């Protein structure tokens, strides 16, 4: 067969059929209405915060810019954390799988060479040589089954990519939270050491007075109790500090480096104030919300693929090449073959219907998960804004109480040295001062952690390209 087959005409006809027959079997991708309020449940002034960059546009180097040690630790974590490494490799894997699915939309073309030798009717051996191009089982995607499968794979890749962004945001905020807790517990250790030294000296003096008959057994027992409580508090603080170091090492993906830039204590820590914007803006800044939306898109595409399975599938196989009984004449004689196969499902024991039902159920699950992600995002931002509205007042009140308790301790100590106050009054003032100092550290930590969590809730924490030079 030497006549030329009109391949270009066939391709054009197939393209027209594809454009005309490929209906919208998949549900239309539309962002569902957010099942949350249109405004945050705080005053507009609190929601606005300071005028500046939105959290999602503010790189972490700027948000945590006041503490050089924290910035260095975050940089190390982004380079070495294993969870982030896995998340980024998942993105690479999903990207490759999306390319595989997209490649199924195009024919696979191969080149083949063959030689055979067989006897003819006279008993003589005859050589046969063939060379050519082959298209193997190319599906004409009239009803969009392959396209929807490709779209689903691409949506899964986008979801995985957003998951990678979410992993980085979580790592940055987790490292910052662990670091601040480590700093706070370090201050608790110093506070405990100072308090224990004071109580040990008080116990020594009261024991001397007791032995001299100038103090009662009640005074001695109270001093011993206060000293033991100080030992317990110091042990607890040291344990917490050691566990904080372990948490930092895990997030860093390596032991805590010995040589680090100088850090800041809690009182000197300062985080950038970011505006909350509107709830609708959070939807385009939160990677977990975008991840859920991409998963919903994948579920829609899967419905389209499941619906397309009810329609005929058409497969084409073709060869175009040359054949000859003499190797020297191989490229003188052209041959081609074209075969097609159409398969219309008639009876499949309900398999296609079950697949469609499963795809619809998966789409319903993806929709519910998207709505839950939106609600979770709203709740996290609202909690952070509530904290921003109240932590300043609480911190001021706690600082005032601490100053008052320290002043009371100073006055009681003077009265005790002059014989005007008892040892029980002194021990009570010491306990109150120590408790107030502990509470002040805890409130400072809670306020800082609220700022970290609000920054994360607003989609902040991604290292933008514009900030690469600052890292």
From TrEMBL:
Major location, coarse class? Answer: membrane
* UniProt signal peptide: 1-26
Which UniProt key words apply to this protein?
Answer: Lipoprotein, Membrane, Palmitate, Signal, Transmembrane, Transmembrane beta strand
Its membrane topology is listed as: Lipid-anchor
Q: Which GO terms describe its molecular function?
A: efflux transmembrane transporter activity
* Matching SUPFAM superfamilies: Outer membrane efflux proteins (OEP)
**Entry-linked PROSITE patterns:** PROKAR_LIPOPROTEIN
Cellular component annotations (GO), alphabetically ordered: plasma membrane
One Pfam family name from the record? OEP
Q: What top-level branch of life does the organism fall under?
A: Bacteria
- Spell out the coiled coil positions from the record: none
Indicate where this protein resides in the cell. Answer: Cell membrane
Per the similarity annotation, which family is this? Belongs to the outer membrane factor (OMF) (TC 1.B.17) family.
Q: What is this protein called?
A: Multidrug efflux system outer membrane protein
């Amino acid at each position: 067969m030497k006549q030329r087959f009109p391949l270009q005409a066939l391709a054009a006809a197939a393209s027209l059929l594809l454009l005309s027959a490929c209906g919208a079997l998949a549900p239309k991708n539309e962002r569902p209405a957010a099942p949350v309020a249109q405004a945050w449940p705080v005053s507009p002034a609190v929601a606005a915060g300071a005028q500046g960059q939105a959290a999602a546009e503010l790189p972490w180097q700027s948000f945590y810019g006041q503490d050089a040690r924290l910035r260095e630790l975050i940089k190390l974590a982004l380079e070495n954390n294993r969870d982030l490494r896995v998340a980024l490799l998942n993105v690479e894997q999903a990207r490759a799988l999306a390319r595989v699915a997209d490649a199924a939309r195009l024919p696979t073309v191969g080149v083949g060479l063959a030689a055979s030798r067989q006897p003819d009717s006279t008993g003589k051996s005859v050589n046969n040589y063939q060379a050519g191009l082959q298209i193997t089982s190319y599906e004409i995607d009239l009803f969009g089954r392959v396209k929807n499968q490709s779209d689903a794979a691409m949506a899964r890749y986008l979801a995985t990519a957003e998951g990678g962004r979410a992993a980085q945001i979580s790592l940055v905020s987790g490292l910052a939270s662990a670091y601040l807790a480590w700093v706070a517990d370090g201050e608790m250790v110093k506070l405990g050491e100072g308090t224990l030294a004071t109580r040990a000296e008080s116990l020594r003096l009261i024991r001397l007075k007791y032995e001299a008959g100038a103090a009662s057994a009640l005074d001695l027992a109270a001093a011993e109790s206060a000293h033991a409580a100080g030992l317990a508090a110091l042990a607890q603080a040291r344990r917490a500090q050691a566990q904080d170091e372990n948490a930092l090492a895990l997030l860093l993906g390596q032991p805590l480096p010995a040589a680090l830039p100088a850090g800041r204590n809690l009182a000197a820590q300062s985080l950038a104030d970011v505006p909350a914007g509107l709830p609708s803006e959070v939807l385009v800044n939160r990677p977990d919300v975008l991840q859920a939306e991409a998963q919903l898109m994948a579920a829609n595409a899967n419905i389209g693929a499941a619906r397309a399975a009810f329609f005929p599938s058409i497969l084409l196989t073709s060869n175009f090449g040359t054949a000859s009984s003499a190797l020297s004449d191989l490229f003188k004689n052209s041959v081609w073959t074209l075969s097609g196969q159409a398969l219309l499902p008639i009876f499949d024991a309900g398999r296609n219907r079950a697949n469609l039902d499963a795809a619809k159920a998966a789409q319903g699950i993806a929709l519910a998960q998207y709505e839950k992600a939106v609600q979770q995002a709203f709740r996290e931002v609202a909690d952070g804004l509530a904290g921003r509205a109240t932590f300043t007042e609480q911190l001021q009140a706690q600082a005032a109480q601490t100053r008052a308790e320290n002043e009371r301790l100073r006055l009681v100590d003077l009265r005790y040295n002059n014989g005007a106050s008892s040892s029980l009054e002194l021990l009570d003032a010491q306990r109150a001062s120590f408790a107030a100092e502990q509470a002040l550290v805890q409130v400072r930590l809670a306020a800082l952690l609220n700022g970290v969590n609000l920054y994360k809730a607003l989609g902040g924490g991604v290292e933008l390209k514009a900030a690469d030079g600052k890292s």
